[in-house]
Design goal:
The chain has helices at about 10-15, 30-35, 45-55, 60-65, and strands at about 80-95, 100-110, 115-125, 130-135. By secondary structure, it is α+β, with helices and mostly antiparallel strands.
């Protein structure tokens, strides 16, 4: 990956509905996690907050919410890529009393005139008591 992205969050998304798809205002939803005011209670909540971080351009949160064993040293977000929708397809574990979990999702994006879809089965684990992104399950 290239240089760390130091752009601030795009304020248009920050003032509206949260990109994670729950229908709440960003500031009351994933914005709380991005600002460090709360922790994700489940693996799905963390995955949604990470999607929202991609949507608003918050690379710092993405790095903070990544497992130390698999986290890259830097993260560059493509400013031309716009995340336009999220579908959670399923979860396995990742609840309040679990230590690991997976979330399968489909994320939609636009890059210029092109649209695309990313489907992933992400693995999450608790690190120091909080949920973090581990990696995607290629198996």
């Amino acid at each position: 990956m290239a240089k760390r992205d130091r752009r601030p969050a795009r304020r248009a998304e920050v003032t509206g509905t949260c990109p994670c798809g729950r229908g709440l205002p960003y500031g009351d939803c994933c914005g709380r996690l991005h600002r460090g005011e709360a922790e994700a209670p489940t693996a799905e909540a963390l995955m949604r907050s990470r999607y929202a971080a991609f949507a608003v351009g918050d690379s710092e949160y993405l790095l903070r919410s990544w497992h130390t064993r698999t986290r890259p040293p830097r993260l560059h977000l493509d400013p031309a890529q716009r995340w336009t929708g999220l579908e959670v397809l399923g979860t396995d574990r990742g609840g309040l009393f679990d230590s690991t979990g997976t979330v399968e999702f489909r994320a939609h994006y636009r890059e210029g005139r092109e649209t695309g879809t990313l489907t992933e089965r992400s693995r999450f684990a608790r690190e120091d008591g909080r949920w973090v992104y581990l990696d995607d399950d290629q198996g």
